[in-house]
Specification:
The complex is a heterodimer.
Chain A (H helix, E strand, L loop, with lengths): L21 H34 L14 H34 L6 E8 L2 E5 L5 E3 L1 E5 L4 E7 L4 E5 L4 E5 L5 E5 L5 E7 L12 E6 L1 H9 L7 H11 L24 E3 L5 E3 L2 H9 L22 H13 L8
Parallel strand pairs in A: 1-5, 4-10
Antiparallel strand pairs in A: 1-2, 2-3, 5-8, 6-7, 6-9, 9-10, 11-12
Chain B lengths: L25 H5 L4 H29 L10 H36 L8 H26 L10 H5 L4 H28 L12 H33 L12 H35 L6 H14 L15 H29 L8 H24 L1 H7 L3 H31 L1 E2 L2 H28 L13 H31 L1 E2 L38
Antiparallel strand pairs in B: 1-2
Helix pairs in contact in B: 2-3, 2-4, 2-15, 3-4, 3-6, 3-7, 3-8, 3-13, 4-6, 6-7, 7-8, 7-9, 8-10, 8-11, 8-13, 9-10, 10-11, 11-13, 11-14, 13-14, 14-15
Classes of the chains: A alpha+beta, B mainly alpha.
Chain lengths: 324, 538
């Protein structure tokens, strides 16, 4: 295997990592709140233990004092439990709200496709530029990560953005964030994935918008994922059956992305990334209503990156526009 | 006949002989059905496994002193943390308190002559020890590098190591847990002394009873999961591997359905130990006994519905994540009530700082830190940042080492005079207890900081800025090692040279203190009758 040099950002020890996004600052607020509550509870506990230990130590030779009645004891317990519950419910809503923001699907400016493998992170930008273990991003744009793995489970971790998402083979996971300041920060694999797990790391480089455009331009001409997907669509022979304006052999694909599809089984699924991937690799699994199971499986013949490119192509089609 | 392998026609009215007087022949140990001797067999086995697990931990901490991966190769490092996790979780922590102190004390605390199924009890030790040795051999000779979590598809398709053998060993050892659990449950239900109603049971018995329930209900799921791994690895049936049409998340669900309750198998018995100690050394009845019992049962129950909190970033449904987060907050409440009640038990007592009490108070500090940081991890957005970082490592070591091991050490020092009839050196024991407290905090507190700073777990090499915190942590591990080695020395020494302790050196309540030390073969000359509430300290 190639012993590629690891490129760590030189940022020094930050106990609170740089707040790369608004969201990071919001997570830190939650952290501070919890630190405050925990500190208070620890201080009360330690205070009580020390005071009790000093006042009621046996060496004073005093007899045991009168104990609390069962009734007031129960009141203390219930009061404590209820106030704890109230605090917990507040924290629960706060944290869940942020979680939905991170993993939900708001409008995004750019989508980065991420494919993990033992032991590297492969990124593809919307214009087709690829990079490994380093991710360049423009400041101020909302980025969506579309993540999968071609072997085992990995986990993409950006501490500066308080973001982490597992890369699971056979599945697409997403997360989004908006960098608000330029600079470098860590990029880690957080899920143990075998021998060189700890070398599967690098950096995120946030650049000014113009800097990012200049950087992209300097990376040479690669076709965009959608264009590459279109070529694959031809070369794998998909276009032979999935023809524009002709849905006799196979369903037309323009405009289906994100729409419900009626299945032969009578169910309905939404044609998202996972469905398209399944349809390429296991075409008989969820057959579209009204069609024969004649499509061959492409399992073992097509790479994860190629599948993502075909998905991008299908995503880019609008009804009546599929061109061959 | 000098053996204590007792028979049906033994004269039960003869002068009771202590359980060790039956001799030291191999046969008297390996064929014994006396729960007290079986407890010792377990103690010897788990101490051996603990040695292997600790040695692995020390090598890991040595490697992490420098950022570059220079002491060990990446393969060796990965094998060592796998060995550490597998051995410590399955062969030390899970059996630690239940199989040793629980085995010894549960029958005595309820006024019984033995466990309900003495032969099953012995069988469980054989299964445990043989399964454990088999796994250890597989892990060391074959080199297992999957971590103790065996995540698929890495463990089924990519890791070319002795995964199958290791999983088989863990599968076998699971049955010893199940047998122990059944024994605890049946013994507690059927063999309580006259007058010993459920609400007069010592909390240690309640805790082990609840542990038994969790063992019996959760362990079979682990067995099924490991069997499915074997099917996939051997026959290539697609269960967890997506390339074969399986689902890797299914493995995580099944694994954590067992492994989260397993955390409560580890911590509940320690909670039971601490309750006994705190009551005894503050000369007070436990504050809110009923609340303590309900908390134990609530923890055992809610422990079964929080497994998904290990999977907040895994790609499971976000809404499932929200539900699991809610239950996780919920399960923290009974633990908090227990902490409150231990503290309140000190109120207006007569507190002395004997060695067991130092351990119990250490437990209180360590468990509270572990518990509160658990709340950080229940909070979804914070968990996303902290998941799979050193924050997690720190959190569960505060619970498992700070909680479970400190509880075990406290219990060992509390009941040592009962187990052996001898007292250990108190000054040395005080030093060891303090070394444990200081070493533990020094080892794991810096790891919280590393975690929030972003450093992932299971890293053989790491960015340079984390070095200072890693060095502190390794220093702590050295102090911690002292806290484990010292007891091994002075406790062994006391077996022969310690002063005789008498039946009840701490002046404690509880049936186990009403018989001589060491106890006679059948524990009690006559079946005791209970007329008092528990913890009737005057």
């Amino acid at each position: 295997m190639s012993e590629q040099a690891i490129e760590d950002p030189q940022i020094g020890l930050q106990l609170i990592p740089q707040q790369g996004s608004e969201y990071a600052a919001q997570v830190d607020h939650l952290y501070y709140a919890l630190l405050g509550i925990s500190g208070l509870l620890m201080a009360i506990l330690a205070g009580l233990v020390v005071v009790f230990a000093a006042r009621y130590r046996r060496t004073l030779g005093r007899g045991r004092g009168k104990l609390l009645s069962d009734r007031s004891g129960r009141r203390v317990e219930i009061g404590f439990a209820l106030s704890l519950c109230a605090a917990f419910i507040g924290l629960f809503f706060w944290a869940s709200h942020l979680y939905l923001e991170l993993y939900g699907k708001p409008a995004t400016d750019i989508t980065i496709d991420v494919v993990a493998k033992q032991w590297m992170w492969k990124f593809q930008h919307p214009d087709g530029t690829r990079e490994i273990n380093t991710l360049h991003l423009p400041v101020g744009e909302t980025v969506q990560l579309r993540i999968t793995s071609q072997d085992v489970v990995h986990s993409l971790s950006f501490p500066a953005f308080r973001l982490k998402r597992d890369a699971v083979p056979g599945m697409y996971t997403t997360a989004q964030f908006t960098p608000i300041r330029t600079g470098e920060s860590h990029l880690f694999c957080a899920e143990y994935c075998g021998t060189d797990h700890s070398r599967m790391r690098g950096k995120v480089v946030v650049m000014s918008q113009t800097g990012y455009q200049r950087w992209l331009a300097g990376q040479g001409d690669a076709p965009s994922p959608a264009d590459a997907g279109e070529q694959l669509f031809q070369s794998y022979g998909c276009s032979g059956c999935h023809k524009p304006g002709d849905a006799t052999l196979a369903p037309e694909l323009a405009g289906i992305f994100g729409k419900p599809v009626p299945l032969a089984s009578g169910e309905t699924v939404v044609a998202d990334e996972a469905y398209i991937r399944d349809s390429i690799l296991q075409p008989q699994k969820q057959l579209v209503s009204g069609y024969q199971p004649i499509m061959p499986s492409y399992s073992g013949q097509i790479s994860e990156e190629e599948i993502l490119q075909i998905i991008s192509y299908i995503q880019s089609l609008t009804p009546g526009e599929q061109n061959d | 006949m000098t053996s204590v392998v007792y028979s049906e026609n033994e004269d039960r009215h003869a002068t009771p002989r202590d359980y060790l007087s039956g001799g030291w022949s191999i046969r008297s140990w390996l064929l014994t059905v006396d729960h007290k001797r079986i407890a010792w067999l377990y103690a010897v086995s788990i101490t051996g496994f603990f040695f292997f697990g600790s040695a692995a931990a020390l090598l890991i901490r040595l490697e992490l002193i420098s950022p570059a991966g220079d002491l060990l190769s990446a393969e060796s490092y990965n094998k060592l943390f796998s060995l550490h996790g597998i051995v410590m979780v399955w062969f030390f922590l899970i059996p630690s308190i239940p199989a040793t102190l629980g085995n010894f004390l549960l029958p005595m605390m309820i006024g019984a002559r033995d466990m309900a199924f003495p032969k099953l009890n012995l069988l469980s030790w054989y299964i445990y020890t043989l399964g454990g040795l088999f796994t250890l051999a597989a892990v060391i000779a074959g080199g297992v590098d999957t971590g103790w979590t065996f995540y698929t598809p890495y463990s089924t398709l990519f890791s070319n190591s002795a995964v199958l053998a290791a999983a088989t060993g863990v599968f076998i050892v699971g049955f010893s847990s199940i047998l122990t659990g059944i024994n605890f449950i049946v013994t507690t239900h059927t063999m309580r002394a006259p007058g010993l109603s459920w609400l007069r049971l010592p909390l240690f018995v309640w805790a082990n009873y609840a542990t038994g329930l969790v063992m019996v209900l959760a362990t079979p799921v682990l067995a099924v999961t490991l069997l499915l791994i074997a099917l996939e690895r051997v026959l290539g049936i697609g269960i967890f591997d997506p390339a074969l049409g399986g689902d890797p998340l299914l493995f995580q669900h099944l694994f954590w359905f067992y492994s989260h309750p397993a955390v409560y198998i580890m911590i509940l018995p320690a909670m039971g130990v601490v309750s006994e100690i705190v009551a005894c050394f503050s000369r007070n009845p436990i504050f809110g006994y009923m609340g303590m019992v309900l908390s134990i049962m609530a923890i055992a129950l809610f422990g079964f519905v929080v497994w998904g909190h290990h999977m907040f970033v895994s790609g499971q449904s976000m809404y499932a994540g929200i539900l699991f987060s809610f239950f996780t907050f919920l399960v923290a409440v009974p633990s908090a009530i227990k902490t409150l009640n231990w503290t309140a038990t000190l109120f207006r007592g007569q507190i002395s700082f004997s060695v067991p009490m130092i351990y119990a108070l250490s437990f209180l500090e360590l468990f509270t830190v572990g518990g509160l940081t658990g709340v950080f991890l229940a909070a979804l957005a914070l968990d996303v940042h902290l998941h799979d970082t050193y924050f997690i490592t720190a959190h569960f070591h505060y619970i498992m080492v700070g909680g479970a091991v400190t509880g075990y050490m406290g219990g060992l020092h509390f009941w040592w005079p009962k187990l052996t009839g001898r007292m250990y050196s108190r000054p040395w024991a005080t030093v060891a207890a303090l070394a444990l407290l200081i070493g533990l905090n020094l080892t794991f507190y810096p790891q919280f900081l590393l975690g929030y700073a972003g450093m992932p777990r299971r890293y053989h090499s790491y960015p340079e800025e984390f070095e200072i915190l890693q060095v502190l942590s390794s220093l702590g591990a050295g102090v911690l090692a002292l806290g484990y080695l010292l007891p091994l020395i002075y406790l062994s020494w006391s077996l022969r040279h310690g002063e005789k302790s008498g039946p009840n050196p701490w002046d404690a309540t509880g049936l186990e203190w009403q018989t001589p030390s060491p106890p006679p073969v059948h524990n009690f000359a006559e079946t005791p009758v209970v007329t008092e509430e528990p913890y009737a300290y005057k």
